[in-house]
Amino acid sequence: MPAIRILLALLICASVSLGGELQTLSGKVLTGEVVSLSEKEVVFKTATGQVTTPVNDILQIELQREGTLAAGLKYTDIELADGSVLHCTQFAIKGKDVEVTLAASNIKAKVALGSIASFLNEANDAAVRKEWQEKIVSKRGNQDVLAVKVNDVVNGLDGTFGDSGNAKGEVPFEYEVGGQRRKRDLDPTKPQVQGLLFLRSLPSDAPAPLCKVFDMHQGTLVASKVAMTATGFTVTTVAGAKFEFPRQAIARLDYSNDKVVFLSDMKPVELIEKSKQGRKETMKLNKNLDNGSLQLEEQFYSKGLAIHAHTEVTYNLEGKYQRFDAVLGMDALVGGEGKSVVTIEADGNKLFSQTVTRKDKRRDLSFPVKGVRQLRIVVTSEGLFDFGAHVDLANAKLSK
Predict the structure, then answer these.
(1) Average pLDDT of span 286-295
(2) CA pseudo-torsion sign 110, 120, 117, 181
(3) pTM of the prediction?
(4) Considering only CA atoms, which of 257, 259, 254 is closest in space to residue 235?
(5) Enclosing domain of residue 269
């Protein structure tokens, strides 16, 4: 009996440890755990043995499900020049460095002040993030910007920040008032400071991105290098910041970069929307036609197109992609019993043409598009009228 219990325990431990998932461009999915990784390949341990996969063929490695930050937790978003976003409960400027403490995990690291693109205090508040984008980021010019909140109103002041803090953790800021140049030292942790926006970009010799690393609490690191340690991962960002993560703090590694492009992220070269009734329904991106989540049967999708008849949409592929994939069906949350005719063409050659009704099950579409210059999608109605004739193309994407 003791031997049986030990064997069962070992089997249980093995099943728990083999909990990760590796997805490839070709659609292959491996279940197991990462044994080793480099800039060229990843070795993955599966139940049947070790499998080596070139990085160029990897879409993502999911180590565990991403967590959420506790409701009410206040944090500052620090964005690096490479696009990395750090949720920080604390930060302090020490000379040319910024010492940060990541939200929830309490992981500490140093980031060069010269690599930071922005600080946004109270980033946990969606309204603050929206106002920051609309009033500060979208209207930036060719200078740094200090965003100050006075009586709950945020305004931006153009100027120039220094590249080093003083002994009090303050950053020098030069600005112009009434034609005169002024200078003051700012503490970015003060309540009246909403944010700092720097006019910075990566140097020309910055390393190429390898992957995006998502931590368990929704932070994102654009990594140039990821190395395994005895207890976790060392992540070096393109901007030069280095982080030591225990294994349980990393949710996934996303190697897709430009290997996969979603149609909802591309701008069509032609979009025709009309109707037999003289009206039109606008194509929606990443939402259904009622502005809700895309849903086919019981499955929700975060990416995709919602298309009403009559719509013709054309994308330039420039011969860069190998496959087109999507999930087709009528959205479960949008009304209508119309019959939609969906046609997909590649350089004028028909890849697919079928009628879609509410009674039909969702269907997976996958077509080779090697060398194709243009992809055209047409949705029409089968009947006299086009009321209720619509479809979702969920997860519509192109892969190299």
Answers:
(1) 90
(2) negative
(3) 0.71
(4) 254
(5) 260-399
